[in-house]
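Could you show me some protein's one-letter sequence and the numbers that encode its backbone in two labelled lines?

___
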Amino acid sequence: MMINGREILQTGYYAFHKDNAFNFQMNRFYAQSVFSYEELMELGAKIDGFESWIRLFSELGAEAEKNNEPLKAATCYRAAQFYTLSGETDEEGRSLKHVLYEKCRRMYDLYYGQFEMLKYTQIPFQNYCLPVYYAKCEKPLGEIVIHGGYDSIAQEFLVMLIYLHELNYNVYFFEGPGQGEVLMRHDVRMTPEWGQCTKAVLDYFGLKDVTLIGISLGGYLAPQAALHEPRISRVVMYDLIYDFYGALLAKMGKAAGFFDWMCRHPRNLLWKVLDRKIEKSYFGSWLLKQGYAIYENVHTPCEYFNYIRAFSTREISPQITQDTLVLAGANDIYTIFYVEQLNALKSAKSVTGRLFTEAEHADMHCQIGNMELLLRTITDWIREKSDGTQSGD
């Protein structure tokens, strides 16, 4: 896919790093053509842990900013910010996570400012504002609203907005509680209730007959919003989040049963042992501190794992009445519930499932490796489920 003479979506999922978490992020940078294959292979050889990841990407961000490469600079600052521990400070005592967010945001704003059709606004909501990027057409084929999920920022996904707009859709991408600007500038945390912020976006733009796309944890948030919003006609779970807690539990193997018992007994003294063990692991500490920063009133590992139980479509799926598209990657941890999710949508107007494979380079979370196939799948489905008329006809 070309935009302004630049290829922006690459196909392929590669082994840039032996660590799966690092490798996934690096493949995201490759997928949007921010880094070349050769650059990422070279970077992968230099990164031996979180400290070197943060240092290297901070340095690369500054270098790219100096060289007037705003998208690369933004991506690098975001990469460093993503794995920085919440609570860390810079030499001036400022939150390092916030400092890096503002750096990446400044560069993203500079880069996306060159797209004349892309607009930005803030919608008054409760005691703060919801940020929205949007692009409209003269005779749109329909209205698409998109939001992210856990620890996401909108700017990482604006390529989707541009792609869909070029196909003649009105597209709106918003951040809600616990995401991006709302979290970093207003300190508003995420809750399982997503309906009110989605309603505010629909009200502000006067939208109806909407396709709602929820990315990553948005695979729970979008159906939750659609449950109470008849103006949403089509829901896309990109990807499914049938049971957030259950999927993480399944990764624990034989220890899952004991860990689940522990979560049901928060005062058990073994939590102190587990807390100390987690603190010794950068990844474990980072994972939980991300949760503490994003979720409301979550301060301990036990509270974290119990809180995420609420992010499950098990109970709400039978009440969803819209046309529903369920997407999954064959090697994503949430795919273990793919069949259960399809079967649970008993009242949906229609249910379509798409399981992406390794042969398609789309088997990982959110189809990183073949986003163009992902976007074609979504737009083909929207056309199939729409009545064929254009908005305003």
